[in-house]
């Protein structure tokens, strides 16, 4: 969500890079809501068809306290997030979103993920306005009311919090070489991105993080789930049971019994035998199986077979 600076740069390189990224992933491997969101924002940037009526330029859609609170242009809460200032801005946001969208849409399923994106888009915009109002009051600087921003990165930061929360703990490398714990990687990215590109909206990215934290640690998730519950997820737990392996299916209205919960079954090698007898029985059976397999795979009889057959014939 960079500061407003007009649409700069060309429309070629970033779009080509995004197309190459999608082809590398494979369109069939991108869930439908994630794919639709990327295509829609790319079409808006390229100004396809009647989209220019809704997104004529950055000044008409950018998000600021002045436009929303004082001029009551509420549509900017959504339109600003879908608009990108240049092709590189579009590429970086959509490349990041492709990864996070694939992870979260597969977890939550498409209907709930669309619901999640819609709520996060509005809440991130509202939080962004709230942060700017707070800064204007605390610093006594009215310029924060006029700061205007566009882009999807606020929502992406909110999704980044969820991906970190639902992923195993580990180490993530920011910019490929800065190691940070994965659970707090979004805080590190917030600071590092601001240092590298100071013109981006710090409050826009911070707003996304706060919305993400409100979802995983606050009341937002229970409230959202009370309206539209996420589709059940399926978790398979591997259970070793000697010779056999079972799986337990959870998060359903029923549970399938694993092998360990089924009735005990007698084993051909071990029923009623001591440990030494079990080992001997297993060794004999293994030798018989090996001999049978060797005879089955042999195309012609060997010399021992011919001698045995001749002996049997003259007896």
Low-confidence stretches: 235-274
Q: Tell me the total number of β-strands.
A: 4
**How is the largest sheet built, in terms of strand order?**
1-2
Distance between the termini: 96 Å
Q: Specify Rg, calculated over alpha carbons.
A: 31 Å
Mean pLDDT: 80
Largest sheet features:
2 strands, antiparallel
Helix content: 55-70%
Q: Tell me the fraction of residues in β-strands, as a range.
A: 5-15%
Number of helices: 14
Gross geometry: elongated
**Topology order in helix (H) and strand (E) letters:** HHHHHHHHHEEHHHEEHH
Structural class: mainly alpha
Summary keywords:
315 residues, mainly alpha, two-stranded antiparallel sheet, two-stranded antiparallel ribbon, 14 helices, 4 strands, 59% helix
Concise structural overview:
The chain has 315 residues and is mainly alpha-helical.
């Amino acid at each position: 969500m960079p500061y407003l600076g007009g649409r700069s740069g060309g429309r070629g390189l970033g779009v080509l890079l995004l197309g190459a990224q999608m082809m590398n992933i494979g369109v069939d491997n991108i869930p439908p809501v994630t794919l639709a969101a990327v295509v829609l924002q790319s079409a808006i940037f390229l100004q396809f068809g009647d989209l220019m009526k809704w997104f004529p330029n950055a000044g008409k859609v950018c998000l600021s306290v002045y436009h929303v609170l004082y001029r009551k242009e509420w549509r900017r809460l959504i339109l600003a997030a879908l608009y990108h200032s240049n092709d590189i801005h579009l590429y970086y946001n959509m490349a990041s979103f492709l990864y996070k969208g694939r992870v979260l849409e597969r977890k939550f399923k498409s209907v709930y993920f669309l619901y999640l994106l819609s709520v996060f888009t509005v809440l991130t915009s509202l939080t962004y306005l709230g942060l700017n109002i707070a800064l204007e009051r605390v610093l006594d600087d009215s310029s924060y009311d006029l700061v205007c921003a566009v882009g999807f990165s606020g929502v992406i930061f909110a999704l980044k919090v969820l991906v970190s929360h639902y992923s195993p703990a580990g180490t993530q490398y920011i910019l490929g070489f800065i190691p940070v714990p994965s659970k707090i990687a979004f805080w590190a990215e917030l600071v590092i991105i601001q240092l590298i590109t100071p013109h981006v909206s710090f409050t826009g990215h911070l707003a996304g993080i706060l919305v993400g934290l409100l979802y995983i640690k606050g009341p937002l998730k229970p409230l959202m789930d009370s309206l539209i519950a996420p589709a059940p997820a399926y978790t398979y737990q591997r259970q070793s049971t000697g010779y056999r392996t079972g799986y337990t299916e959870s998060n359903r209205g029923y549970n399938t019994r694993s092998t360990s919960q089924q009735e005990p079954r007698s084993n051909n090698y071990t029923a009623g035998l001591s440990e030494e007898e079990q080992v001997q029985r297993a060794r004999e059976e293994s030798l018989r199986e090996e001999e049978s397999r060797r005879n089955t795979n042999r195309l012609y009889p060997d010399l021992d077979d011919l001698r045995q057959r001749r002996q049997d014939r003259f007896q």
